[in-house]
Amino acid sequence: MFEKRRPGAVLFDRDGTLIRDVPYNGDPALVEPMPGAVEALGRLRRAEVPVAVVTNQSGVAKGLLSPDEMDQVNAKVEELLGPFDAWAICVHDDADGCTCRKPAPGLVIRAAAVLDVSPRDCVVVGDIGRDMEAARAAGARGILVPTQETLREEIRQAAEVADDLIDVVDRVLTDAEAPVAAASAPWARAMGWSRW
Ligand SMILES: [Mg+2]
Ligand SMILES: [Zn+2]
After folding, report:
1. What pLDDT was estimated at residue 77?
2. How far apart are CA 38 and CA 165, in angstroms?
3. Residue 55 above 70 pLDDT?
């Protein structure tokens, strides 16, 4: 029987995906997890799938947010959602012409490199078309989780759309979660499957 491979990593957009989108937020007190985020991340971590954040923070380039404020917000995200195995952050704006700001693939490629997995083995989860374009450009599997802000066109163009973060994990771990019974598959550990 065909068995899907567990992903090398799941890379999450931050704003509007892991936490509620508060544009250019520099205040840790305003950080609020999206529904299902805690459970979804818990399931991925228990399945020993690395999790990372890939986030555009153009507020830094615009001067609306200091790097220190951004760090404080990210620290609050980890306080509420647990530690991430990698953070890839673009602090540029569209006019900077960088290679990391989504829809460019740079953040996905960087996070995958830090985790020592191929972008092709990664799942990118986001709430807008830019996230899906970055996934596609990097060769990753993109899963869109729309919010009220997501454009109908972005939903129409997405290769895959999930209801929420729980649905994402259901899709990603469909086959990987059950066989994770490590005792019955000691070779999985021997091959260093669990964590890089
Ligand atoms: Mg977003
Ligand atoms: Zn950038």
Report:
1. 98
2. 9
3. yes
